Structure formats: structure tokens, C-alpha cells
């Protein structure tokens, strides 16, 4: 399949998170990243905008009853930057995780605009 977007990871946060997961979970995460790279319209069960954050999204991964989230942003539409991930234990995404991702997003744009 042809890629429409390029996916990169910002610093090592995503990789650190990925390395803590089982092979099965890693495969599922890669599958969703592949969907983000290749699908014109990404299904909302895979990707969702975080309301009120101005550009922060979460990739949604689920295996059985376990849930993971990976925060990301779209830079100029064709570049997807993976920020950080976490295991979701509660119904709502913890504000602490969103704040961390927003901090990384800000850092990314500041470094880029230097």
C-alpha cells in the first residue's frame, strides 16, 4: 500500500513506551500506525482528536479489555509525529497524560521553529 503520510517519533518517548509492551500489543500498534500512514480517512475508532487541545490526537489501541493510547500530532497534514503512549486504566484519559503530551507538542514546535 502506498503511504500518504509519514510517521515519525518525537525524541524517544514513543519508543520507550513501545518497548515496554508485549509483542502482540506492539503488532497492534504498528497496524494502527500503518492505517494512519496509508488510509485517506482514518476511522475514528483508530484515531480521535482530543477536544480543546488544538491539534493533539490519540491513536486508540485495544486488545481484549486492555486499552492503550498513543498521542500524536499532524504537522502540515502529511507528517505525523508520535509523542508518547500509556496504558489506559480509566474511562477518561487522565489529564496528567494529556498535559504531558501537550508539553511534548509545544516542545516539538518550539524546536522546529528555531
From the N-terminal CA to the C-terminal CA, the straight-line distance is 35 Å
Helix residue percentage: 25-40%
Q: What is the global morphology? A: globular
Helix count equals 3
Q: In which order are the strands of the major sheet placed?
A: 1-5-4-3-2
* C-alpha-based Rg, rounded: 13 Å
Structural class: alpha+beta
- Look at the structure and give the mean pLDDT: 94
> How is the main sheet built?
5 strands, mixed
Sketch the topology as an H/E string, one letter per element. Answer: EHHEEEEH
Write down how many β-strands occur, each being a DSSP E stretch of 2 or more residues: 5
Taking pLDDT < 50 over at least 5 consecutive residues as the criterion, the unreliable ranges are none
Q: How much of the polypeptide forms β-strand, as a percent range?
A: 25-35%
What's the SSE blueprint?
Elements: E1 6-9, H1 13-19, H2 23-38, E2 47-49, E3 56-63, E4 66-75, E5 79-88, H3 95-112
